[in-house]
Amino acid sequence: MTVAASSPQPEAPRRRAQWRYWLGQYAGLLANLTPPLLYLLAFFYAPMSILLVMSFWKSGYMTLRPGFTLENYITFFTTPVYLKALSNTFFIATGTMLALIVVAYPIAFYLARMRPRYERLILYLLIIPVEINFLIRIFAWKIALGRSGIINSALMAAGLIREPLGFLLYSKFAVGLVLMHEWLPYVVIPVYLALKGIPPEIIAAARSLGASRWDVFWHIVLPLSVPGLFASFVLVYIPMLGEFAVPALVGGPSGYMLGNVIENQFLSAGNWGLGSAIGFILLTVTLALVALVVKVAGVEKLL
Amino acid sequence: MRKGRFLLGFYTYAVLGLLIYMPIVILIVFSFNDSRVLSLPWEGFTLRWYAAALARPDLHKAIWTSLWIAAVVTVVSLVLGVLAANAMARYRYRGRLVFTGYIAVPFVVPWLLLGIALLLFFNLVGLRLSALTIILSHIAFDVPLVAVLVAARMHQFDPWLEAAARDLGCTPWQAFRYVTLPIIAPAVIAAGIFAFNWSFDAFVVTHFVSGTQVTFPLWVWSALRFAKNLPIVNAVSSVIVVVEMGLVVVAEMLRRRGDAGEGWW
């Protein structure tokens, strides 16, 4: 009884000292961590949550009433135009991603085995255009690809074709081409970094043990570059699923993507509930893909 | 072997030339073409599209709006981003990876979704769409950018340097100001240039949260709908392309100088 009663008295100053120690340790951390944490909470995580909640609200033209309904989701999955946009989106994004990997891999391979001076030059050549306003770059493609555009008029002047090639602009082909232009650096660079990280001794060892060049590539280089491919998948495939400016400018009716449906619901059709539902479907697919990649490849390899 | 490498090199330059640079070169060349339509044949050299661009007050206003918005966004994003980078790279605590993920998630969410989510959010809290909502939105995607770029630099530097400064009697602020900051300065400046560029070029997010404000990308977006504007868009675009290329070269040089580990201030 007496023991229990007397023990808190020496406890108090010790606790205070501990508290002060803890404060010294963590005050700096908290001062650094809290402001960005709160900012993103307010202007990223809260809006994203609202998107989710509102996708279940009752929605009409320019009206949105609180409640819980699956109407918006049902509308999406029963309207052929929307489903067509969904399949278009996956078709274009997947096709472009595969084409990008095929086109980018040899460049990354070449880059990884170069003398440093030229290596840096090509890296600059890849990085610089990324920072040019991308609406301007899409516009540049429109000038190049149109029916009376530079490519068609040059080919006709050279006598190679009689009629302008119609598929160059306002088609899935145009969307894919412009997306490749936009995303090529984001595929080359992660794969290049992965290839660059392969210790040359491994290759030398394999060669001295009698492996052919092809064996080395197939059994060593390619598997070791897979993390780079995963990284580029996250960097490229996911934003492509949410694309709307490229299909809006060069896609025409046949290149219509999910992003265009969403934009249209918000800025023209005025059906925010449906737009939110489609947005949330897109977000779910996106996060599921990221989770899959993280699970298969491991986070530390991506960073 | 040598032949294979030559072919790979040829292939690399061909892809870069055709897929990356051809449209940009066409854009710049045809901004000097004396013709209303952007196509061959070449009608002669002119600067009149540049003169026409200079005479458009709506364009000036849009560029000015984008510039000052990007400036405000850059300053705030640098402060918040460097704080986040500190918490990501210079402290050891449980939940550090969670915090890193928390900061990085905006990178993997398509900008379109950020745009509509912010539109819903501003509408719900009753904030009228204006320059303010544009700024708040741009900071949301610039903070992760700055944090990741600066944290990458911080990971490389020796934490004992700052501990030594503290040992020798510096206050935490002095240790940061005179030891850490000079070392991370090139990365911070480079991150600032990239953040400025991202804000200046931001179209997708701005498209949803701008209300009646017109930024430069929004001006381009609406100008593209009218054929008579195209040569002017072309001329302005060419100027912007050259300026942005210059800025990026500077940012990259700073970043690399920082990576080489030289002190800077």
Rg from Cα of chain B: 23 Å
The stretches of 5 or more residues of chain B where confidence is low (pLDDT under 50) are 261-265
Average pLDDT level of chain B: 85
The CATH topology of the largest domain in chain A: MetI-like fold
Structural class of chain B, please?
mainly alpha
Per CATH, the superfamily of chain B is MetI-like
Indicate the CATH class of the largest domain in chain A.
Mainly Alpha
The main β sheet of chain A shows up as: 2 strands, antiparallel
Strand order of the largest sheet of chain A: 1-2
Shape of chain B: globular
Distance between termini of chain B?
47 Å
* Most extensive chain-chain interface: A-B, 82 and 84 residues
Q: How would you name the oligomeric state of the polypeptide chains in this document?
A: heterodimer
The averaged pLDDT of chain A comes out at 84
Helix fraction of chain B? over 70%
Secondary structure: helix percent of chain A:
over 70%
The separation of the N and C termini of chain A measures: 58 Å
In percent, how much strand structure appears in the residues of chain A?
A: under 5%
| Total number of distinct structural domains of chain B | 1
Strand content of chain B: under 5%
CATH superfamily of the largest domain in chain A: MetI-like
Summary, kept brief:
The complex is a heterodimer of chains A (303) and B (265). With 303 residues, chain A is an all-alpha fold. Helix content of chain A is 77%, strand content 2%.
SSE diagram, text form:
The complex is a heterodimer of chains A (303) and B (265).
Chain A: H1 2-6, H2 8-54, E1 58-60, E2 63-65, H3 71-78, H4 80-112, H5 116-127, H6 134-145, H7 150-157, H8 172-196, H9 200-208, H10 213-224, H11 226-241, H12 245-251, H13 258-267, H14 272-297, H15 299-302
Chain B: H1 2-30, H2 48-54, H3 57-89, H4 96-108, H5 111-125, H6 131-155, H7 159-167, H8 172-201, H9 204-209, H10 216-223, H11 230-259
